[in-house]
Amino acid sequence: MSNYVITSNKFEGAFYLAYGNGWLVKLDLTEANLSKEQHAYVLGNLPLKENELKAFAATAKLQCKEQITQVTFEVFYNAYGYKEGRKKAENAWNKLSKAEQIKAYQYISVLKAKKAFSNENLPYPATYLNQQRWSD
């Protein structure tokens, strides 16, 4: 299941989509303040196939962001890229809430950019997780 949040500067709030096996399975417009015309446009043009969503968003000038609802340790560890102290990192990962795991994962690209700019090395994965560096 893939979940997306859609926003725009043309309306307040956001609406949410879910695709399962590539097909639209859920649409939630309750948090979007859409005009009647905007509502009709979304319902009439929203793609049923997930692979058409980005083109639709670009054409309609919408911001489309996939929502991550769960990240496994394997996904985190591979994205982090610094392969050191796997067991300690996995233990630290398992102590985090699901929400903290998502935050830790999403902050990796920011951390890598900061470290590249300052010419510093990444901390060990366990250090990153134990010290909750994404909160810095």
Key words describing this protein structure:
single chain; 46% helix; 4-stranded antiparallel sheet; 136 residues; alpha+beta; 7 helices; elongated; two-stranded antiparallel sheet
- For the largest sheet, list the strands in their spatial order: 4-3-1-6
Ranges where pLDDT stays below 50 over 5 or more residues in a row are: none
Shape: elongated
Helical content (DSSP H or I, runs of 4+): 40-55%
Q: What fraction of residues sit in β-strands?
A: 15-25%
Largest sheet: 4 strands, antiparallel
Secondary-structure element sequence?
EEEEEHHEHHHHH
Radius of gyration: 19 Å
Structural class category:
alpha+beta
Mean pLDDT: 92
Number of strands: 6
DSSP summary: helix tally: 7
The end-to-end span amounts to: 31 Å
Structure description:
This protein has 136 residues and is α+β, with helices and mostly antiparallel strands. The protein is built from seven helices and six strands, in the order βββββααβααααα. It has a four-stranded antiparallel beta sheet with strand order 4-3-1-6, covered by helices on one side. A two-stranded antiparallel sheet has the order 2-5. The chain is elongated and about 55 Å long. 12% of the residues are buried.
Task: Indicate the topology.
Blueprint lengths: L1 E6 L4 E2 L1 E6 L2 E6 L3 E2 L2 H10 L7 H8 L2 E5 L5 H8 L5 H10 L2 H9 L1 H11 L6 H6 L6
Antiparallel strand pairs: 1-3, 1-6, 2-5, 3-4
